[in-house]
Every structure is written in structure tokens, then in C-alpha cells.
Please model this.
Amino acid sequence: MMMLPGPAQAHRRDNRVFPRLKALSDSIERRFPSGVLRYALPICSLTTLIGVFYLLYVVLGIRFPPLYGFLYLLLLIVLLGSAWLGYGPGVIACAITTLVVPHLVNNPNRAIQSDLTRFTLVLIISLLISRLSETHRRREAELKKTAEDLEVRVRERTEEAVRSANLMREAEERLRFVLDSAEIGYWDYDVARNATSRSRKYDEIFGYREPLALWDRETLLRHVHTEDRGTVEAGFREAPQSGHASLEFRIIRDDYSIHWVWMEARALSAAAGESTHLSGVIMDITGRKQTADSLREQAELLDLAHDAIFSTDWNSNITFWSQGAEQMYGWSREEAVGKASRDLLDTTFPEPVKDIESKLVSAGHWEGELVHRRRDGARLLVASRWALRRGADGQPRGYLEINTDVTERRRIEEQLSHTQKLESLGVLAGGVAHDFNNLLTGILGNASLALDGTAPYDRNRVLLEGVMKAAERAADLTRQLLAYAGKGRFIMRTVNLSDLVREISGLVQASIPKAVQLRLQLTDRLPGIDADPGQLQQIVMNLVINGAEAIGPEGGTVLVRAGVQQVDSQYIDTMSSAGELLRAGEYTSLEVHDTGSGMTEDTLARIFDPFFTTKFAGRGLGLSAVLGIVRAHKGALKVYSKPGQGTTFKVLFPASLSSQGAQPLPFKGDLSGTGTVLIVDDEEVVRQTAGNTLERYGYKTVTAGDGVDAVDLYRRQPDTISLVLLDLTMPVMSGEDALRELQLINPKVRVLLTSGYNEVEAVQRFAGKGLAGFIQKPYTAAALAEKVKEVLAR
Model:
């Protein structure tokens, strides 16, 4: 019917017989506490049996005695099993069996005296069985503990025996290793008998696993390499006279392998003075010879390395000096060996030498950067790696030093880092200028609208004109920021640089102090360059004014040169800024040299940083803007300066093969018009300003704050909207994405793009995408109306 659960120990014992039942039992024990199982199983089993009995006897009315005899037998098994589980389960089972079951088949009104008597008898039996079960479990636990203790002792004894066996085996292996490592063979040669007695190792050195029966002088010579046989014979002849001989020679084994051996011989003389015996030792030195050859090859390889490799003792005295070190520092091996490396190279350490030596001893190696001096006085920055050398006693004996010249690499890295810093600052400057242009669009647009509606003699007209001038100066400042970021508004033409400098020379001279003389050295037939003339004028003005201010009140000269220069890869590597934009070829150069005070290296490293200035009233944007304009024109800039020797700025622009370009003429005529313009911009002030402007000039306007709203508005009324004034940079949906969606609705939609960035970048970005025009922020009311009129007139 069921398996009566015993203690966990009994289940583990049954696991050896009934593995599946044991797995089921363990699963039940993990899910339910053992106390719950001890009570739940008897109750469930009794309830099941009573239910079956009641169903068969009362409900179905079956009167088949053998069946009920079997049920009574199962009931007895459950009762005894419950008692075996413990006192509690046994008492509960007795109560259910004696007090409940009889009432299912007997008269319920019968006196319960017989039930109590039966309950008492069954309870006594149950208690006895529970007592026996408890005694059994206790003894089983004791036996298990005894067995576990015995198992622990047996395991400990076994482990001890294993350790002892391992120690004995290790001792045997060490002894065998010592015996096998005895690489020296002993021999004794009897001159009179021409016979040699020897150790077993002697024969093994000559390749024999088993000793030869006879070993005489001829046997030895037969094994000696033919080229060394004369040396050995001479040694044996001289040994009796000199008393000893030490030889190194080659032998040939029977398997034709060649081995180097070292043999030491001493002569033993008789009383008469004649040598009767030669005794000595022999050792196979093939491995040592191979090691020596390998070391020699490694030394030759070290000499082939471009790195400087040298070895020193603990007092920094050089003991080895590679050819790479000779080439890097200029001192020969003979000149360097024996000298202290830190004195010879005038080493500058990044930390105290004692700290470096302490790290070297503790870690076994050290890495860092050192500054060394060459023989010609030049300073080198080297990446240095030190490896500790210890003696046979384990004490530090010196170190091996490997130095790699990283002077040029570090210069390139610093130049790259400076370029990346300028690029990141350019992104920041461009973002600030873009947002500021949006604000200026509202200021300029509204001020120009108010100014157009003001009478010529109105007192407020002067105030509005002041607002316009201030906004235009602010716009100039944002243009400098955009120029630094390389995103200024460029109107590209093919320009002759010499002609441009001549045209503005008068304005430049008027802008510098009278004590400063402006001189021009301009080549007449210069190749043209593709550039924005206004931006080039700003470069010339900024560089000349910067040079004039560096001269001071004592006076001096600013020289402006324009010429042609061929640029190769080596020259590109020397460029200070934006050199990575250059390609080998023909360039037009602009040089501005002043006789001022010059700059220190620290100042020179920061002159292109935005807002860095050495002037009391400077804003620090002039040279930053120059660099941005140069980079935007795919040019490069180089600076020469030393304190007291003035400064030279040299700018290179790639020569152009195109002809002079004509500029579009501005639109002339009445600026008023008709039609509906959809204004799309994420800035509310821009939307309001543009809307007021266009409505002033007769247009109807609708506005949208982002690209998604603009597409929805245009989809509802594509035939009504004549033009879309679209901002380039917006959240949610950019101007580029919005243009694509608008063209899906109407491929002929007219879109006038507006942005704080330059027109060239925007036009190139939207090339071939059906853009109707571009207007840069900030713009005045008249400029916007003129551009809209121009686009709608096409």
C-alpha cells in the first residue's frame, strides 16, 4: 500500500537497494519538513483506507470477507508503521483506528466501553512499538556516528599512509635524480697495461648503455673527432711531463652524433719518477657549448635591435653596451663600458632613484619614461624597461635596461591631442553659436521690423538702430565662434591671395599703430585658391593686428608674404595645427612675420585655445577663429616663435585649378509677395519673428515647432502652402528627415533651409535633394523677405 518513511538514515541505506524510491523520498523530504511528513503520512493513509472501507461496505454494500480481511491487514500495517514513526503518529493512528472505524460498521448507539478497551490495548501496543522504534533509531544513530568516526579515523590513517608513501617516493625520486644528474665520469688509465678503468657514467658519455669489456687508448682515439684527434694525442703526451692536462674536444658516438666533452687528466708517478697512471674526469659539455653559441647569437641579435640595450651593475656601471645604444646615444662600446650610465646619459628620472631601485628589487622589473642626453647634447625621451639581475646568492647584482626613443612619437601624440582638443572645443563653440544665432534672429528680425515701421524723425529710431548695431556685433562674435568651429558661412570663390592682400592693405595699415610699419612681399602670379574672400580678409587682419600688438610702443615691422610652396610628407609632419588635412602637392602660402617680443613654449602651446589671450582687453578669439577658417578651407598653419626673436605665422592653402567664380547678384525690386509660408523651427522666438516679418510683407504663415508637426500640417494642406522655411537642426525630427517626408507628400515642394551653420556645409549635405535655397541665421526682416521672394520667383 505505502512505504513508511523512517529516519533520513534509513532512507540513505535503502538508496543502495531502491535508487528511484530513494530519489522520490529525498525529493519529498526537501519540499516538506520531516515533522509534517511523520504526521501527514499516517493520517493520509488512514483516511484513504477508511474512505475505501466506507465506500465498499456502506455505500456499495459489498460483503466479501476476504476483501475486508485484506483491508484490515493494510490497516494494521498502517497502524504499526505510524507507531514506528513515533509516539505522536502512533497515538493518532490508534485513536482513528479504534474510535472511528468501528462506528462505520456497528451501531452508532452502542456503548463506547468496548471502543475504549480496544483503544487502550492498541495504544499499549503502539507505545511499545514506538519505544522499540526510538531505541532502534537511537542505536542506529550511535552506530552511524561510530561508523562515521571510524571512517574519519580510517581516512586519516589512509591519508597518513599515502603521505608516507609519497614522501618515500619523493625521496626515492630525489635520490634517483641526484644519481642521474651526476654528469661527470671518472677514469683511470694504466699506462703499462694500456687499459682504462672507469665509472659507468664514462661509458654513457660515449653513448654506451652497457659498459664495454675493454677500453684502451685506441678505443678513446677512435671516438675522437678527426679534427680534434691531434689535440688529444698531444695532451696525452704532455700530461706525464707537465703533470696535468685540460682538454675540450669532440667525440663521435656510434649513432654518428657529435658531442663536446671536457677532460681533466693528472699524472700519477711511481717512485722512480715515471708516470704510471693518468687519472681524471670527463664531462659532456655539449649543452654548455650550445648555450654559449646561443648567447653569442643573442648578443648578435641585440646588436641588430634599434633599441638601446645595455647592462649595468648595481652601482649603474655599464657592463654591456649594444650597437643600438651606440647609434641612439653616440658613444661606442669601448667608451661606454665601465662608466655610470646615469652620469654618462645625464638621466632625468620621474621619481627618486632609490624608489625606482626599491620597486625593481620587489617586483623584479620597472618601466617608465626617462630623459637622456646624447653625445651631441640633444635630449631624448625614452620608454625605459629595467629587468633585475641577481647573483647565485640571490642578491641583486645589477639590471638590464632597454630604452626606446619615443621623442618623435610623443611629439606626434601631443600634436594629435592638441588637435582633438581643438576639435572638441570647436564642436562646443559651434553649438553655442548655433543657439545664439537663434536668439539673434529674433532680435535682428524684430528690431528691423520695428525700425521699418518707425518714422524717420521718431526718437525711438535711434534706439532701434542701436539695438540693430549691437545685434550685428553679436552676430560678428558668433561668426568668429563658427569660424573657429569650422562652420562659418563661406561664399567660395577662386581668389588670388596677393590681390586680396593688396586690396585690404590700406585698411590693415589704418588698423595698426603708427609706430608699426607694414611691408608687403607678394608674388604676382599666384595660383588661385578656393576660398571665401571675407574669411581670408579676417585671417590677414587678425594675424597682422596680432603681430602689431606684439611689437609694442617702441615700434617695429610686420611683414606679409604671399608665395607658392611645394609640400611633401616630411614637411606635413612639421605643421603645428591642422596638418592632418594636408596632402602632398602645390600650395599657396601666406606668411605674417613680426619683430615683436616672441613667445615662450608655454604660450605657443595655448595660442589657439579659445579665450586665451596675453592682452589686457583681448577676448582670445582672434587666433582661434583664424585656425577654424584655415581648417574649413582644408589648409594648415605653422608657427615659428622664440622669445626676443619675433613670431612668424605661415598659412598654407591648397592651390585651385578652377577659374574665377562669379557671385549671384542680390534680388532687386519690391519685397512684398503673396502665398502661405510654413515656418518650421524649434525656437519660438524664431517662429514669431519670421512669421511677423513675412506677414508684414504680405504673406500668410503657419508655424510648426518640429519636423513631425510640419509634416502633419503640410499633409493636410499641400496645395495651400507655397513655401516651407525649414530649420536644419531640430529635436524629434531633423530638418533633413523632414525634407524627405515632405518630398514624399509633394516631390515639387519648395523648401528654404535656414541654419546657424554655413551655407556650403548645408548645400553639400542636401546636394541633389531638391533644396530651393538657404538663408543663414541671424537674418534681418528685409533679408528674409528678399530670399523668400527670390525662391518663389523661380
